[in-house]
Amino acid sequence: MVAITSMAREHILEAVQLMYADVANNPDKEFHFPTGRQTCIFLGYPEAMLDAVPATAVESFAGVGYPFAAAGIQPGNTVLDIGSGSGTDTLVAANLVGSAGKVYGLDMTRAMQEKLARNIELMDIGHVEVLPGNAEEIPLPDASVDVITSNGVINLVPDKPLAIREMFRVLRPGGRIQITDIVIGVGEDTLADVRNNPRLWAECIVGAVTESGYFDMFEATGFARPETLNTFDYFSESSKQETREIAASFQAHGILLTTTRPAS
Predict the structure, then answer these.
(1) Which of 44, 100, 138, 148 has its CA 20 to 30 A from that of 128?
(2) What is the C-alpha separation between 199 and 205, in angstroms, rounded?
(3) Smallest Cα–Cα separation from 76: which of 170, 147, 169?
(4) How far apart are CA 59 and CA 122, in angstroms?
């Protein structure tokens, strides 16, 4: 992977935060990537599941897949949602774990944190907590969660190996991961000249890696080799022809993967 200077990393994170603050504050705006309830339905969310969380959470949905197809969350679990945004997945997870469980919604964008907090209040539930922070430094103790879910976030993280090590650290032995994310079908040499472009990082493509490269990072950290449960043409739902063309040029597509932290 191409090294990212500290200045480039700072600019990448700023570009990502600005983009998703806009999604939080202007949910009716047309973005280059698909958002909102119709995107959830396109990706496979049952309408009844969406009806069970506030519409103000779903309106700012900016995920790339349906991680709950992995069926990894059980009643009473402690769940971490990395990149919780306005709370669609966080609050779906809260309904799945029930009041005996716990859900942490981790996000680095203040506007999304605040919107998630308002949506928690609308649901009048006490087992969800907003965690300001990012995937490279998760503010939770070691071995403190049963399941990690994430939806279109790790491709935006500059230091993916560090983020994956953090997931391993906070996940209990035997714990499960369910992630939907963007991967690409071209080699690193194709992306070398554009890796440090903050705008293209925010567009969810040049921060992505190949599926095999992604899986290698998980396995090198100590996770079981991930399994791909589904692949999908996420960018086909974009209203922007340019975005569809850029995605096609990188062979960018969505995947649903699962893996576990070994029990021993």
Answers:
(1) 44
(2) 10
(3) 147
(4) 15
Q: What is the CATH number of the domain that holds 71?
A: 3.40.50.150
Residues 73-91: tens digit of each pLDDT: 999 999 999 999 999 999 9
209, 160 Cβ separation under 8 angstroms: yes
Q: Is residue 130 assigned to a domain?
A: yes
Nearest-angstrom CA–CA distance, 144 and 250: 37
What tens digit of pLDDT does each residue of 90-100 get? 999 999 999 99
Say if 1 falls within a structural domain: no
Residues 6 or more apart in contact with residue 169 via CB below 8 angstroms = 138, 142, 143
- Give me the domain span that covers residue 228: 6-260
Overall size of the chain counted in residues: 264
Q: Per the domain annotation, does 169 fall within a domain?
A: yes
pLDDT at 1 over 80: no
